[in-house]
Each structure stands twice: as structure tokens, then as C-alpha cells.
């Protein structure tokens, strides 16, 4: 099972998706087809926490006046299920591995996984 979760209108996501050969991957746009509770649970198991999946740069944080420092894991989960913009993107799942977001460390790990130098 190889899946990518992304936003179609996110330029950074699109740039990252174009970087790799994703033939045979399920590519899922999360705005038009949101995450299910089961999918989020699977991501959490691989990531180690819901907080690891949570984008603290989401515009919804300010709009909803959310204090991210005080959120519990259950609250992170509920927010991730409530609105697509709370998911750090893109998310690549490759069986037993997960790559979350677009920071340099995650991209370097993806490059290594895909054999890009």
C-alpha cells in the first residue's frame, strides 16, 4: 500500500509530487476526499502521535483562536478530522513508513526512499 495525501491547490505539494515517480501510488486530494477516522488512526500509529501530523501553520488556528500548546492528543485528532488544513502536507505512506510534511528532513528522507541524490 502506497498512498500520498495532498492538496491540489498547494504549490509546494504539487512540486513535491512532481519530484517522484508515483506510478502505482494512490494519490489522494484531501480537500475533496477528507481523511477517515481509520486512515487517521493508521497515520498516527506510523507517526507516533496525532500532534506529529498536525500543521501548526494552518490558517484555521488563528481563525478559531486555538492554543496549540494546550491541546491533548484527542483534541489534535478531532481537529485533524474536522478540517483538512490541519494535516501537515504532503503525507506519504509506504507500508510501514510515513513521511510527513515538506520540511528539509522529510524531503531528504523521501529522496533517500526514492533513490534520488
From TrEMBL:
Signal peptide: none annotated. InterPro entries: Arsenate_reductase-like (IPR006660), Thioredoxin-like_sf (IPR036249). It holds the Pfam family ArsC. Belongs to the ArsC family. This is Arsenate reductase family protein. It comes from Cruoricaptor ignavus. The lineage of its organism: Bacteria, Pseudomonadati, Bacteroidota, Flavobacteriia, Flavobacteriales.
Amino acid at each position: 500500500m502506497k498512498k500520498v495525501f495532498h492538496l491540489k491547490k498547494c504549490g509546494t505539494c504539487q512540486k513535491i509530487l512532481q519530484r517522484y515517480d508515483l506510478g502505482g501510488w494512490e494519490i489522494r486530494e484531501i480537500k475533496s476526499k477528507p481523511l477517515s477516522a481509520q486512515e487517521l488512526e493508521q497515520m498516527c500509529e506510523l507517526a507516533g502521535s496525532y500532534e506529529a501530523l498536525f500543521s501548526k501553520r494552518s490558517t484555521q488556528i488563528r481563525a478559531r483562536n486555538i492554543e496549540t500548546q494546550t491541546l491533548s492528543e484527542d483534541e489534535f485528532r478531532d481537529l485533524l478530522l474536522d478540517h483538512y488544513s490541519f494535516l501537515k502536507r504532503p503525507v506519504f505512506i509506504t507500508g510501514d513508513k510515513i513521511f510527513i510534511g515538506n520540511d528539509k528532513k522529510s524531503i531528504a528522507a523521501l529522496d533517500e526512499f526514492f533513490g534520488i541524490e
